[in-house]
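request received
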Amino acid sequence: MTDPLSPLDRPNSYIGRTVPRPNLERLVEGRGTYVSDMTLPRMGHVVFVRSPYAHARILDIDTAAAKQAAGVIAVVTGAELVEQCSPWVGVLSHLKGLKSAPQHAMAVDRVCWQGEAVCAVVANSRAQAEDAVEQVQVRYEELEPVTDMRTALEPHIPVIHPELGDNLAFERSLDAGEVDKAFAEADAVAEAEFVFGRHTGVTLEARAVLADWNPGERRLTVYQGTQAPHMMQNIFAKHLALEEAQVRVVCKDVGGSFGIKVHVYADEMATAALSKRLKRPVKFVADRIESFVTDIHARDHVCKGRIAVKQDGTITAFAIDDLTGIGPYSMYPRTSAIEANQVVNLVGGPYQARNYRARARVVFQNKNVMCQYRAVGHPIACSVTEGLVDLAARAIGMDPLVIRSKNLIRDDAYPTDSPSGLKFEALSHHASLAKLKQMMDYDGLRAEQKRLRQQGIYRGIGIASFIEVTNPSAAFYGVGGARISSQDGVSVRMDATGAIIVQTSLTEQGQGSEALTAQVVASALGVALEKVRVILGDTDNTPYGGGTWASRGAGIGGEAAWQAGKALRMNILKVAGTILQTVPELLDIDQSVVVDKATGRERIGLDEVARITYFRPDTLPADFQAELLATRHYVPRQYPFAFTNGIQASWLEVDTETGFVTLLNHWCVEDCGTIINPQLVDEQIRGGVVQGLGAALFEHCRYDERGQLTNGTMADYLVPMASEMPDIEVGHVVSPTLESELGAKGAGEAGTAGAAAAVANAVNDALDPFAVTITEIPLTPSVILKALGQRSG
Amino acid sequence: MDKKVITLTVNGETHRLQVEPRAHLADVLRDELALTGTHIGCEHGVCGACTIRVDGAITRACLLLAVQAEGAMIETIEGLSETGEIRDLQDAFRNRNALQCGYCTPAMLITAQDLLLHNPTPDRATIRDHISGNYCRCTGYQAIVDAVETVAKARQAAGERP
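response:
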C-alpha cells in the first residue's frame, strides 16, 4: 500500500529542513568519545617496529633487550603473530583476473613497503612502548624496490610477488561503438597525458583501535574508528578464528574518515590479534608519520586520453589508457582495482558520445597501499574527461560552456545508459549548466577576464561536469564475494513515555547520519525531532547493514529509516484505533498526538498510547497484541547505482612570475535528488570541494626512487587551510530517484569528484595567452613555472 | 625516566602531578587529567588540534612540556564550556554546522575566541587568516568563517545596546 502523503507532505515534515545535528552539542564542548580518548582497565599500548626499507628480506629480529625494557608487556614478531591471525588476499571475483598475494597482520619474512610493521611492542604506556621499540634489532637484506609504475611491467624489473608471475594486478579493457572510425572522421583530435599526484586522506584523528578480548566471555570487543562495523565484525571473526557472534565492533565518534577508515589495515588486525594473544585490552593509535606511510593513498594515476570532435562541436569519441600503481598488495576486502575500474566506467559519462575505448592497468609497486578514498576514481575520470573536452573546444575555437551544452546528455533523454554500461535513471546536466552559468555570471566573468588580461593579470574560468556513483547496490562488492552489506536496517521503537529510539546500521563520521535518520523518522511518525534518539555504530545494538561509505547513507539508510518509521506509525495507530474503537486508516500522528486524519482533531497522546500498551495491556482486547517496535531494511534493486550529476566552476588567478594560484571563487551545482537537510548537503559539497582543491593545488605523497616517502609530516605535506580557500557557492537541481519513496541520492563525493578538474581547466584558461597546457596535478608553483619556462625556452 | 612533581592550574583547579620531564602538556592533560577535549593531530605544532589557553594566550599543548607549564593558568575546552565564555560561539558552530567530525572543533573555538577578544570586528579574510593554523578536513572552512562572523556581529550589536 502506498502512502497518499509523500515524505515532504507529512504533518510538520522535517524533510527538506535545516535543523542542527543532535550530536553536535557534546562535540562543541569537547565531550566526544573518540577511540583515541578511550582507556580500559589493564589496557596495553601497542607501538610497531616498521620497516625503513621499501623492499627487504627480514633476516632476524632480536627482541631480547626490548622485552626487558621498563613497562613492556610483550614483544611479538610478525612470524609469531601468525598463530593468532590468518592472512588475507584482497580480490573480488567480479573483477576478472584481479590477483594479489597473501598479506599478514605484520610482515613475516619480507617487507614490501616503507612503514610495513614487522614487530609489535605492547607496554603499559605509549611512551614506554616507543622506548622499547628502539631496542628491537631487525636485520634486513635490502631488495631492489619497484617504485615507478611506468616501468613496473617491463621484463628487467623484479616481480614483487614471484608466485603471481608479474606485477600486473588487474587489467580491464572496453571497446564500445566505432572508435577508430570516429577518430578517422573527426575534424579535430586532441590528446594529452594526465598525471595525478598520489595523495591521502589526512584524517585529523589518526586511525585508532582498541581491542578487548575477554576470555571469560569468549568475546572480542573492538572499539574502532570505522565506517563499516558489520564488515569489520566479519573480518575480525574470520581471521582471528572466531564466530561472528563472538565479535562486537563499536564505533563512537570518529575524527574524520573520507574512505580512509573503511578498509582492513594490517596494524589494526595485529592489534586485535595481540589482544587475543595477551588476553587483555590493547590500543593502537597511529601517529602522524605512521598515518602518512600506512593510511591508504589514492589517485596515483597516469592516464593518456584522446578526444574526437567535429567542427560543429559534436564530440564523437573518447579513448583512454590508464595506469595506476597500488602498492604491494590489493587492499582487503574492497580491493585496489576499484579506482581504475571506476575510471573506465566514468570517463565520458556526462556526454552523448557513444564511441569509447578504454584500458586500465593496475600494477604492484613497493610503496604504501592504495585504495578507495573519497570520490574513488571520479576525480581521475572527471579531470581526464573535462580536460579533453576543453582541449577539443580549444582545437575548434569553441567556448567551453557551449561545447558542453552541445554534448551533455539531454535532460529529456532518460532513462539511458553510457557506452560503459552505466544505467542513468534521471540526470539534469543541462538544468545544472544553466543554473551554474547564471550563478557565476559567466558572461560577466569572461568580460572581466578579457579586461584584466590587458593589465597583465591572468585569470581563468574552469568548468567541469560530472556524474557520481551513489546508493550502491550489491553490484559494488557483494556480487564479487565480499561480505559487505549493501542493505541497511533501521529499528524504531516507542518507549513508555512516547519517546522514540532508533537503531540504524548507518555510521556517523560527521556527515550527519544521526541527524538525517532522526529527521526522517520524526517525519514518518509525526513527532518532534527532540523526541527521537538515534543509536548507531554498534554491531550488538543495531540492525545489520553496510554503514556509511560511497554516498549511501541518506539514500539507503535514510529509506530504511523512512520505511521503519512508517511501519511503527501504523503499529501505533493500530493500538490507538483499538483504544478509540476506530480503524487506524482514519487516524494519523501529529506532534506526538494521534489525530483524526480528516480533521486534525486530537484524540490521544502517544504518551497515553504507550502507558496503556506497556502498563495496562489488560484493558486492551485479549486477541490484540500491541507492537511498538518496527524494523525495516532497504536496498536498491532496480538500478545498481543511483547516479547523480552536477557541474562545478573555478575562477582563479595565476601569478605568472611566481607560479602561485589564487582561488577567487568556486561554484558547484549538484543534483542529489530529494534533499533531507539542505545545510548538511551544502556542507558535504563544500567539504568535498575543498578536498578536491587540496588535490588540485597542494597534496602529494612524494616518494624517492628507493620508495622512501619524503614528505610524511603535516609541515611538508600541504593540505588546504582556511586562508587559501575561497567561499564556495552551492546550487541544486532536484531529480529524485523514483526507486525509493524518499527519493534521496548521495552527495558526499560530488565536491571531490569535480573540483580538481575545474581548477586545472581554469589554470589552463588563465594561461591561454601563453599557449600552455598543463595536465598534471597538484598544480604547484614549480609545475606552472616549468610549463611557462618550457614555452619561453 | 625520573618523574618530576609539578603543580598545574587547569580550568581553575589545582593539580599536583608526577610527570616525565619529556611529557608534553597535551598528553598530560589527556592522560593524567582525562581532559580529552584537547585533541592530538600531529604532535609537532602544525595542525592546531591541541590548541589551549595558557595565561590567556592560545598555545599548542603539544609544543609545551608539562613541566614548562608549572604555575601557569591553563584553560581547556572543558573549562571554557563550563564558564560559558564561548557559549555563543558554540551555539553558532552548532547552528551553522561549522563542524562535521568535531575533532578540530574545541581548538577551532578557542582560536576563534582569541580572535574576537583581540579584534571584535574582523572581516572574513581576517577570520580566515586567524584560523589558518587550525586544520579542518571536513568543512572546507566556510561554515566556520560564517559562524565566527555571526558571533562577531552579534557581540558587536549586543555591545552597542544601551
